[in-house]
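One-letter codes give the sequence; the integers encode the fold. A sample entry reads:
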Amino acid sequence: SSMIFWAAAASSIAFWSSTVSSHLISMTKNSNTKHTIFRVFNTYGPGENLNYNKKGMVSIYASYLWKNKPIVIKGSIERYRDFTFIDDSVNGLVLALLNPGSFGQIFNLTSGKKVLIKDLIELMKIAAGKDKNYPIDINNSTPGDSFGFNGSNEKIKKLLNWTPNYNLEKGLNNYFNWIKKVPISDNLLNYHPFKL
């Protein structure tokens, strides 16, 4: 018997949930393979590549703060997302691996909290130790980007007894404690949280 844990980024939930999840379930239907599917919502935390500004809203905004550049926001600051600290995401994955009741299930791995982008930015400025008037530059939305999404974590709480240990403020403080130790550099390999 083997196990498959599959996680999809929440931004692609509509496609992945209906297509890949169905395919995975049908592939493993007549086998001894056990599977658990996770819909992962905006995970952030220490160890992210602060030089890669193509994904991860928190990571992208943190990069601007790290480099002391104005925060570039693409789209309305009234948009919303749901953010989960990396330790909480890992904890959910481990709980599922250790709990056979998770097999065959689909879980939202999410804080369950709707956060407006303008509120996220304010919390990030505080965590980074920046002035409340730190500059932001609001641009047009990225084509295809959703206005907002957040999810329910009731199922994972109920079936796996999982609860996020980090609210957004605590997670951002932890994240920026790491970022403050990282010099601005193209090569961040020596600054992974496991190496500091």
The chain has a mean pLDDT of 87. The longest helix spans residues 86-98. The first strand starts at residue 3 and ends at 9. The CA atoms of residues 30 and 189 lie 43 Å apart.
